[in-house]
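Researcher: I'd like a structural prediction for the single chain below. Treat it as a standalone chain; there are no partners to consider.
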Amino acid sequence: MHDHRRLGRELGLFDTDPLMGAGLPYWLPDGAVVRHTLEEYVREAERAAGYRHVYSPVLGKRELYELSGHWDHYRDDMYPPMELGGEQMLLRPSLCPHHALIFRSRTRSHRELPLRMAELGGMYRSERSGVLGGLTRVRAIQLNDAHIFCTPDQAAEEAAGALALISRAYADLGIRASRHRLSLPGGGGKYVAGPALWRRATTLLREALDASGVAYEAVEGEAAFYGPKIDVQITDPAGRETTLSTVQIDFHQPERFSLRHTGPDGARHRPVMVHRSVIGSVERAVAHLLEEHGGAFPPWLAPVQLVVLPVGEDQEERAHAVVREATALGLRAEVSGPADGSLGARIRRARLVPYQAVLGAREAADGLLAVRLRDGRRPGVLPAAEFLRRVEQRVRARGTALWEPA
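Model: Treating it as a single chain, here is the predicted structure.
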């Protein structure tokens, strides 16, 4: 069983320092590569699906979160206000109030809808020290968030589109969803009022799930304070279940923020807000990927994708040339030469690197590479240009497969 905290430190991906504080990990260079690659993957997938990206500040006035309902319903998970120039400022616990303000920053037409607004943004949760752990429970969160402003008639289709994005990302990342949960309100007073709107939102989410052909179970007491949601659950190697991705339909915040768009009839209409996160927080996603793959990330996500192993010093110059060629193709490659130990030791040290290329005297003279894959397969001796082209194609295609037959 893999523990992402141990793996993260062994592989030099992330660490913590008591002077920074609990629940505030920092990312080391290889971890930053994984994080950056994952974030760019999400941005690219969102752009292809018609999302436009924005940036918004991590601070907001207390009045903003009073308006959104977070101050009344979510205060225990927020940091206390900071007094600045006679105003109370808060670290945001969520991005949706900021996106609502961006939507209402100018007049909107029905022709703009659905308006898909995405951001990989920071938010902050005042988690208790006792529940913090590695990357799974942190206090500073980088969230893959998006809000779709649409008409009620568009909401179920947009929610289904979000589920399709999540499904594709899981396939590319090698993540398995353990179940889909329709999270509904339960007993207690943490939810906003409006039974009719709750019923309407729940009906739309059921339509999205049915259209997607996804089996699900309804669970009471797990809804957001402003509306029901679909939670995509994952299970770690220890059998612990957690939520990674969500899709929510919200009638509450458009009403609180007085959001309007001009309809085809010239009248002003209120949009629906679909909240959606494909991979949830970057921190939790990387933690799960580490434990799911034991540090052997899919080839496109690996910090180092190719290691070139010259047998002797005479082949080192050619090894560095191969790395330069790989880098020019956009691959992350490095040389591990004789100074790093015996060939066997170097191969073992690079066991998590997807592709290894051994370079002896004959290979160096003939422009060849003896190829080894992380899973133990040996495709054989290939021309260097052909091997690099095939690795580049495999990485560009994403997914979890290491190799495809020629």
